[in-house]
Amino acid sequence: MPRLKLFALLTLLCAAPATPASLVAQDKTQLCNDVQHRPMRVGQWASYAWAGGRTDGATMRMAIVGTEPVEGSPYYWYEIAFTDRSKGASGKTIVQVLIPGLDQATAMRGMIMKSGAEPAMRMPEEMVRMTRGQLGKNFATEFGRKCNEMDVVGWEQTTVPAGSFRALHLRHVADQTDAWVVPDLYFGLLRATLKDGSTMELTGRGGDAKSSITETPQTLPFPH
Predict the structure, then answer these.
(1) What domains does the chain contain, in order, with CATH numbers?
(2) pTM of the full structure
């Protein structure tokens, strides 16, 4: 899935409502802290579409599609469904991870993947342990670094297919990436422009998400 790590990072650019006052250094520090602690709510979803660049015409939906107890604590199935329409039926990839929070990849306890028309596969526990260690390390480090490196451009009225919103414009100069975030949206990312010239925009949102995987996943054998 192209640039899945970047998409996941952009997913978490959401925060508690901010005041209209000019944002100074401590405001951005607070924002970077807030974005990592969004409460999980089953049913929340947001859909996006790309224009231009290598992912022209692609779409993505992020959603919280279910909950499952793990050792007495609530965990949630977080889903990313990415569709590259240029590849036809094989162009859709669905990844679901079972986590206690969006900022807690190292606590992942389950992973399900489905590619195109292939059967959905649930990763064995051994593979989940291997994946969560690497994913958690890279994700936490990368997110914290990029959030703190972003410059605040300012508040702007921004129109996308999902509507018109007052959004906070952030810019990462080195990565040539701009992001517009709306604190009141569950998935706060409204719009992003990437280095390859592509633009990603919010096309819809809601609170009634269901899993994109309708069959019972098979368990992938773990090689010994």
Answers:
(1) 4-219 (2.50.20)
(2) 0.81
